[in-house]
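Lab notes, practical 5.
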Amino acid sequence: MEKRFCFPVGCIILCAWVVLLSGCGHTQPARFYLLQSMPGMEKDKHAAPTGQSLAICVGPVMLPKYLDRPHIVTTTKTSELKLAEFDRWAEPLRDNFSRVLTENLSKALGTDRVTVFPWGKTQFFDYQILVTVVRFDGELGADTELSARWSVFGEWGKKELLTRKSDLSEPTGAPGYEALVSAQSRVIAGLSKEIAGAITALGEGKNP
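Output from the prediction step:
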């Protein structure tokens, strides 16, 4: 006599859920990125010699709210913002941006006396740089954009010497977030060169 085994429908559904949940338990690992200073940042030929190096204070650097998150933000051709699910900043973007800008200015101006905000109340400095970032994002496989207003202050930050707006763009050169972050490092280098040039002109008594 042939024997038949019957499984309740509820048992079959339960087994299906177990298989599904076990598959969901293995998520894609997150990838973390940092902006980098430019190793090829050239020292301005008019920068002061080492013994007469300028003291520069950088900051505060202010970023728009839409960038205040660990996820890397990209755009599309329709101006839609997208948050990367697995590609994130390794530290707060404002801190990373400020440090890279500081390192770039140190190289461009030939001085090690560059400090990131906040600094000690008794610390002397020749110039203070305030930066307000308006836009800092890009499209994967296309261009990255940086738009920022920046000011240079003298007399211990009490006197505004100049205010400028920089709009910079760099092609990513390849798809993916690694290429995007590299392009973003390059646009910060471009901003650094503009600021360094203005500081050099001020030191020479020229109109930047």
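Observations recorded by the TA: The longest strand covers residues 159-171. Strands lie at 31-33, 56-62, 71-75, 81-89, 114-116, 127-138, 143-154, 159-171.
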